[in-house]
Write a structure and sequence with these properties.
about 110 residues, mainly alpha, 434 Repressor (Amino-terminal Domain), 2 domains, 6 helices
């Protein structure tokens, strides 16, 4: 997967045969209002990246994809995966395991 966050959103939306307006109407902000088509357009063109967990979750649900993929592409972390510790050794260990998993995955595809 070498796409940007926005490119991935476009790809999934297109695969689901959904317009920007339709997808935007399915993504609700914390206040219960849907996001605007313009906000979605900004996301798809990588001018903005949602940092709120609830927007990522809404996008994942509407696009029938995993939240983790969207967090990865948006360069963010779900709130339950954010480090609650300032222990440098644990942080390094976690990132080392993450990098190893990605590296192992790329080996499996070659």
């Amino acid at each position: 997967m070498s796409s940007t966050f926005g490119q991935y959103i476009i790809k999934r939306r297109t695969e689901l045969n959904m317009s920007q307006k339709k997808l935007a109407s399915l993504i609700f902000k914390e206040d219960g209002e849907p996001i605007s088509a313009q906000y979605l357009n900004d996301i798809e063109h990588d001018r903005r990246k949602p940092r709120e967990d609830y927007i990522i979750r809404e996008l994942a649900k509407a696009l029938k994809t995993e939240e983790e993929v969207l967090y990865y592409l948006s360069e963010g972390y779900p709130s339950d995966a954010r480090f609650k510790s300032d222990n440098p050794e644990r942080i390094v260990k976690a990132f080392t395991a993450f990098r190893r998993a990605l590296k192992d995955d790329s080996k499996d595809k070659s």
